Amino acid sequence: MSGAGKQIHIDGGVDNFQLGPLIVQGSKLNSPRAEVHCTIGTGKQYLYIDGAIGLFDLKAQTSIQVQLLPKPILVFHTYVYLVLIPQSYSKH
Q: Which DSSP string do the residues of 21-86 spell out, in sequence order?
């Protein structure tokens, strides 16, 4: 990459999927995918990831924003949900 102000911008994502007990999905309601946005250049370097992962009764929603240029920024939000279902039992 040569020249001032040149940059590469990438937008993408991972489509929602389930593999056994593992679930990967977008974090927003009815979102079809987890999101990734990236900009790399001489004046701006930025990465944003937003999605949710579930495994059994545990779900984590994460939003990560990292910027090196023009000013360093780190924003990391994680919400963890744990569903506890009481199991009935009988005494013998």
A: TEEEE-SSTT-SEEEEEEEEESS-EEEEEEEEEEETTEEEEEEEEEEEESS-EEEEEEEEEE---P
> Domain segments of the chain: what residues?
7-82
In this prediction, residue 92 carries a pLDDT of 54
2-27 residues labelled b (16+ CB within 10 A) or e (exposed):
eeeeeeeeeeebeebeeeeeeebbbb
28: tokens are: 């927003």
What does pTM read for this prediction?
0.71
